[in-house]
Amino acid sequence: MFLKKLFIVFLCALLFKSGFGQTSSNNFLSLNAGAGILVYYGNIGQTNNLSSFSRMNTGLNLALEQRFSKLFSVAATGLYGKLAESNNLPTDHRNFQSSIYQGDLSLMLRTEKLFPKSSVTPFLGVGIGYVAFDPYGDLHAANGEKYYYWSNGSIMNMPQGSPNAMPLQRSYNYNTKLDSLNKYPHSSIVIPFTFGFNMRLTDNFCASIGASYYMAFTNAIDNVNKGKNDSYLYASFSLTYEFRKKEEEKSQEDKRYSRVNFTSIENGDSDGDGVKDSKDKCPGTPKGVKVDSDGCPLDSDGDGIPDYLDKEPNSKKGAIVDANGITQTDEMLAKKQTEWDAGATERSDLFNANPTQTTIEQIEKKSLENKKETGKSKSLPVEFQSADFNKDGFISVSEINQVIDGFFSGENDFTVEKINRLVDFFFEQ
Predict the structure, then answer these.
(1) What DSSP state is assigned to residue 90?
(2) Do residues 166 and 155 lie in contact, with contact meaning Cβ atoms separated by under 8 Å?
(3) Within a domain: 262
(4) What is the spatial distance between Cα 323 and Cα 341, in angstroms, rounded to a whole number?
(5) Of 36, 150, 374, 406, which residue is 20 to 30 A from 139 by alpha carbon distance?
(6) pLDDT tens, residue by residue, 17-74
């Protein structure tokens, strides 16, 4: 019972680890399914002259295997099949058949990495398992009459010498429970020894031919509870699917990231403000500027202008401030409006000085076409770089509008004169 629980716990742990762990060339889960033949070795069947081929029974196996290194893996295997044997001596005609239900855990040695150029590689394994069995016997003919084995080798329906005895044919129906009183445990620990060859079919599919020899810690599988412990052999053909990425994909990923220091990236602090880049919401903070836990410069008065740029560090809450953090009074805002209106005429004259163009949008379109055809445009002066919001080296109508909006809200340091120069540059670029 303990081994059954251990097997279930390990299988769950194996699935959990594989489902949520990383997949690599040395760490992946595989599913194996196969079929084969079972041959029994015990107290029955050792005294006749029948070949091993006449003693074979079918079996089915299913396994989950977790690779955890280049050479080693752990396999959890389930096996179902039948074991059967018969004696055919004049004085011994015992027979049995038993279905077996088995689970085992094995440490496997896989050699693909030792022979990377070979498509066929050997494997070895050893483990521990638990098997349950219940032997039945073929003691009666199809019509229900009991077998009587006579010394001349015939099977009769009466004891030897009976004058009215009639011959019977063995039905090979194992329908009589041999240990109906449960005189011995119908389960046992087993030790599997495995050997075989693995054949690579594709990047994820393999085929294998192997054999496992099971040493049981019981001698009662055949209902003859004496002598040495029983054993059996399972030879099988299996197909395996490996849940891992193709070698080509892994190779490309390895090349792509081989020179990347992920530890350095994770712990990097580009602006040196004491907050890792992965958590820094304000990257590029000037050296020496005090920041909060998010890496953003401190703004004591909450006016949107960080302390190191704020020329009025104690602005009233809710006050309208300019790019320097200075409170903008109604008079200041009105003055800006007046300055702007005064410059409107100049901008209008500038537009009218370009009679070949009918709209500003056409001017912009022509400038862009010229830039595309020649690959060149007038270099953007340093004083206007803050107006190039999309960083394409070209001042557009929408960007001029943004600058004007920022002028009135105090979000930039543009003056009326500087805006006029920006408009001039727009027509010249």
Answers:
(1) T
(2) no
(3) no
(4) 21
(5) 36
(6) 444 444 556 789 999 999 999 999 998 886 655 555 557 899 999 999 999 999 999 9
Length in residues, the chain: 429
Residue 46: give its domain's CATH number: 2.40.160.20
Q: Residue 404's domain spans which residues?
A: 330-428
Q: Count Cβ atoms below 10 Å from residue 371 Cβ, excluding itself.
A: 16
Q: Which amino acid is at 402?
A: Q
Q: Crossing angle for the helix pair 416-428 and 397-409, nearest 10 degrees?
A: 180
- Give the pLDDT confidence of 93-142 residue by residue, as tens digits: 899 999 999 999 999 999 999 998 899 999 999 999 999 999 999 999 99
- CA 61, CA 39: separation in Å to the nearest integer? 15
What is the number of domains present in the chain? Answer: 2
Residue 425 identity: F
pLDDT digits (tens, 9 = 90+) for 222-246: 999 888 999 999 999 999 999 986 6
Residue ending a domain, choose from 217, 250, 283: 250
Surface-to-core class of residue 11, CB atoms within 10 Å of its CB (0-12 exposed, 13-18 middle, 19+ buried) = middle
Chain centroid to CA 392? 41
308 in a domain, yes or no? Answer: no
Q: Which of 221, 250, 279 is the last residue of a domain?
A: 250
